[in-house]
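It is worth pausing here to work through a concrete case rather than discussing structure prediction in the abstract. The textbook approach is simple: state the sequence, then state the predicted structure, then interpret. We follow exactly that order.
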Amino acid sequence: MGASLIEIKRRIASTKKTSQITSAMQMVSASKLTKSESVSKNFQLYSQKIRTVVTHLVSSQLRDLEESGELVTDPEEVTPDYHDMLVARPVKKTGYLVITSDKGLVGGYNSAVLKQTMAMIDKDHADHKEFVLLCIGGMGADFFNTRGMEVAYELRGVSDFPNFDEVRKIVNTATGMFRNGLFDELYVCYNHHVNSLSSQYRVEKMLPISDLHHEEAEEYEVDYILEPSKDMILDILLPQYAESLIYGAIVDAKTAEHAAGMTAMRTATDNAKDIISDLTITYNRARQAAITQEITEIVGGAEALE
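Step two, the predicted structure:
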């Protein structure tokens, strides 16, 4: 019984230390979440502005493309007025940019993305040659590599608050692969941050740029003189807009990751407290039984001496 009491006390002490660690990790994740939400909010302002400018510059092309409603079967058939990042082409190969974390301790954050992405791929593709993967985060890269899938590029070690320079390489790689015809459309798969308690799996089509509409364009009473030409401006601005969409998804996913980490650590802390409570009850019962047994032995010994 003595050994049992000692073992229970050790388990209580060990669980208390674990709860202190998870509680500290919860507070760290909560702090990161607050900052990440602020970064995401500020980025939305930039995203709205660049969307407004791009929509205004390409409004006429968007109107023509919508009215024609045709795919371009040969990239050389694209007229100079139609930027290649706006035009849909026959899909021979699809690109997926999958965003996960580099480590665990984030609850079901990674499993939600990977499970639903795999279900989508299995549904839409009969062969692995029909798609290519780009991965942000070690969990996703390792997951797909172990299954023999083609991971064209992977980025690990993204900071908690990524700036654009940090993810520029994979963003430029994704847009460059599209423009070079290595895939004909790009989808970004990630967890969208809803609130501190929940996230939502999202698959967003980033390339070709198809979420713009000519009716969004603002009408101005004055004619603007553009220097350099509009085509030259769009050659720079449209890739930047596509890159901003991908970067926005990365920031959003990081925010959801911090929220998942905070929730997971809070759950772990609560579970540790429940275990400590149960162990304390068990310890008290065992201690009471040991005391009762000792009293019984003393009384029995005294009676034997009489």
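Step three, interpretation. The longest strand covers residues 185-195. Confidence is low (pLDDT under 50) at residues 71-82.
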